[in-house]
Amino acid sequence: MKKEIIINNDLEYKKLLKKLIIYKSIFYKNVKFDIKNGYNNENILYIMTALNIKNRTKRIEYIYDKCCLIIDNNNNNKNICGFFNGKCYVQRKLKSNKCNGCCNKCLYQTTNGCASKNLACKMFNCSEVKKRTKTLSYTDLPLLKLLSLKNKFIVKSDYFSTREDVLNDLYSYSFLYSTLRIILRLYKNYIRQRRKIK
After folding, report:
1. Apex CA 163: angle with CA 71 and CA 152, to 5°?
2. Inter-residue contact 7 to 35 (CB < 8 Å)
3. pTM reported for the whole predicted model
4. Hey, is 86 helix, strand or coil?
5. Helix (H, G, I), strand (E, B) or coil at 33
6. Taking Cα atoms as reference points, which of 64, 62, 30, 68 lies closest to residue 49?
7. Residue 54 contacts residue 29 (beta carbons within 8 Å)
8. Tell me, what's the pLDDT at 1?
9. What pLDDT is stored for residue 175 in this prediction?
10. Average pLDDT in the 33-52 region?
11. Are the CB atoms for 60 and 171 separated by under 8 Å?
12. Alpha-carbon dihedral sign for residues 122, 187, 167, 116
């Protein structure tokens, strides 16, 4: 019979968070994580679902997509950047000729918003936005605790990349390889952006 780890209350949830580094390891590959007795906590549900995904790449993909969805749901219909006629708070304040706020340097921007699903970009908020509204931070997403240190660094710094590129960086076991991919992509994006301006 498959071993089960069951969470019933907040105390057990806090204990689970402290042991995540062990629970996500190969030693718990045959353990099922479950919630019982009507314990209702959205974060624990996401973490349990992720822990029950035993395939590494599928788990990373689930964590990435779920965190993007949480941020989208939090910001849904809020216009946190204060866009008006394509310009954010800061661009209007500075009377800038640029549009699309912080995304103006990104190759994936469209008139309908972002064509890419990038967690680093979704988590970035300038000081003006933070001053005006409550935004989510990385600590508000306990699901990210299931990522390795290398992958936490990537989701915080892999800006202006497609979902597929970010996921490929996350799947890699090598920090150096992922970092080189990110630097090369940023350089290519910079060159393409310069060509667009000319």
Report:
1. 65
2. yes
3. 0.87
4. coil
5. strand
6. 62
7. yes
8. 44
9. 81
10. 85
11. yes
12. positive
